[in-house]
Amino acid sequence: MNVKTVLILLVLALATIFALVCVLLTRGRAPSTCQHQPPAQEDTDDGQSLVFADLTPEEMVQVVRYLQGNLGVRLVDAWRAKPSDNCIASVDVQVPAKAEVLRFLDGGGARPAREALAVLYFGDQPDPNITEYVVGPLPTPLYHRDVTVQKYGGKVPYHRRPVTGKEYVDINALIHRELRKAPRFLAACCESDGTDLAILTTAPRGFKSGDRATWFVLFHDVAGTGYYLSPVGLEVLVEHRDLHVSRWRLRQVFYNGQYFASMGDLEDAFVANLLEVVRIKKPQAEEVLGSMRPRHPPGSPGPLQYEPQGPRYRVRGNRVTFQGWSIVFGMNPNSGPRLFDIRYRGERIVYELSLQEALALYGSNCPGGMSTRYLDGSFGIGRFAYELVRGLDCPYTATYVDQHYLTESETPKTNQNSLCIFEHNAALPLRRHFSDSQSLYYGGLRKNTLVIRAISTLINYDYIWDFMFHGSGDVEVRVHATGYISSSFLHGRGTDYGNRVGPHTLGTMHLHHIHYKVDLDVDGQLNSLETQDMGYELVKDPWSMQNTIERPYLRRERLQREDEAAFPLNTPMPRYLSFASPKTNKWGHQRSYRIQVTSFAGEHLPTSSPMERSISWGRYQLAVTRRKEEEPTSTSIYNQNDPWTPTVAFADFINNETITNEDLVAWISVGFLHVPRAEDVPNTVTVGNDVGFFLRPYNYFNEDPSVDSPDSVYFSSEQDAGLCGVNPLACLPPTAACAPHLPPFHYGGFSNL
User: Fold this and answer.
1) CATH of the structural domain 315-521+567-698, one choice from 3.65.10.10, 2.70.98.20, 1.10.340.30, 2.140.10.10
2) Residue-averaged pLDDT of the chain
3) How far is the C-alpha of 162 from the C-alpha of 201, rounded, in Å?
4) Where in the sequence numbering do the catalytic residues fall?
5) Domain at 48-158: CATH code
6) What protein family is recorded (predicted)?
7) pLDDT (tens digit, 9 = 90+) per residue, 612-640?
8) Reported pTM
9) Where in the chain are the domains?
């Protein structure tokens, strides 16, 4: 054997030894513990979910080009359009009729034409108006049709249009010009020349149909903080109905309990020493009321939630699947989050689940506060759902989705990462039992939930919109309110309308009412409304006839008509209320889904109010109506600026039609009264400020469907619970080494304002 052969054998021997060492070093480990495991293959829809998909930026651009070339009128880009111009206000997807969609999804029918809904403001016409067009087919439009009369029964008057950003810019310029007429007053009251004051709108804008006069509240503005807590006591009423900006005027001025015809009159009263002035120092950034800047350096990091083997859900386009759930998601730029075609184990439960409106109604002894009834859909609940902060607004490792919209511009905009999807471990059992009698065992299941979340910032308030899907077949819908309270200048008997939260700041009482549409299809489209509640019957004891017992019994009722199924606020509602299918489960009960509401809503407005019909959905904690294509939403963006003649009045939906074995819709109101307290500074916390509802299977299944969960845990006293093969919880320690590779933190939410 020569030297060369020996060297070759030595090299081979060393390689063999090295390989054996590697095997021995890795032996006993579970190499798949940290290996990404894609979620089990869910049923595929072959792109069917795109029938509900929000428009892409490319589709929006094509719609704009089509309108510019085919309407025969000059269109001005809305971001610079005057009221006397024509402009494109918004472009959104036109969801096809339900019958068309179901023929496509369930019956093998043709895919419905993809269309857009375009809203245009026609100010440059003899009869200025708002017109809505359906434009299609996409991606290359060939036609448009005016659907305004079909939808609303007539033309939509021009004064009902939402206020555009350009209109606010022109109003602010007018206010600043007027402020210059009272320089000595401003220097004395506010240490200001007026240019550094923030201006906040109120709504609605007058007292009767056709009015467009708005109170604006002025605040000290300090960079990096919320100005909403620093009112200076000055409010102005601006008349801006005329189509010509040059004719707008400041109609009235309010300061510290007194009203004046103009800023000049206010200045004269100050100079003549006829005005009680509260001198407010200009706040400094480090000590301003409501600053959110951290007061201490960061501490040790808190718990981190992550998926050791990657997400167990799958997002494909506008559809997410998770452990039997399938949900199509989207965002309306006005009304906010909308879900479609919600299925569990392949069966559709909900055709549409969508936010409709958010009302904030205030009280105060200042004109701006006392007249405010914000209908946030007219401002843009979806449009103002900005980028979410990774690791705070949602888990760091959540899936983040961009949302596109075209509003007040001819160019689409994108709110990056503005919707998040994640699996949430609630640190709570979904179910569990410890058996300490007869046989000894433990069984349980973690409460892991799929969450779809968006957060809208509507001026001062931030609303967290959650849609949660549980392994038990339950759907949970919840909204949390946070952000800054709105405030008024504290004067006179201000505390009749809230609490003092700063030197000159009144935290004004207000109520939040949120409205949802839930188009349930429980084992088919045709459902009935069943109620159950408890009563007592006095009976003689069968085993002791001389005694009696109060025996609970179940009162069951099927509601026949819409009037019976409209439950006013603050009136008793059956504790069990279910959409029931004619079909039964294994035990002979109708397959049903129960609606369970968690809310503390009070009276939205007295029905005697001339603007109550515009928010008449707020009369009811729950109303069930026949589904109609001509009743797609409970409100309209045009209701805000003309609540006295509402474009859509929900009360008209309830006309006592039969609701037995029909396609039904549940309209759900949730809300709460908020009386601000000192602890609402700097921000309202989410704790206790949340309301919502559940959709819960009620005899829909033959047993709790979560029994099929692969996450189930069971072990008995006769087993070694520390063995991975016996108890999946014993397999968790190795996953401690599976800390995820977190992407670098990035936030671009300020870039698209």
Assistant:
1) 2.70.98.20
2) 93
3) 12
4) 376, 461
5) 3.10.450.40
6) Belongs to the copper/topaquinone oxidase family.
7) 999 999 999 999 999 999 999 999 999 99
8) 0.93
9) 48-158, 165-272, 315-521+567-698
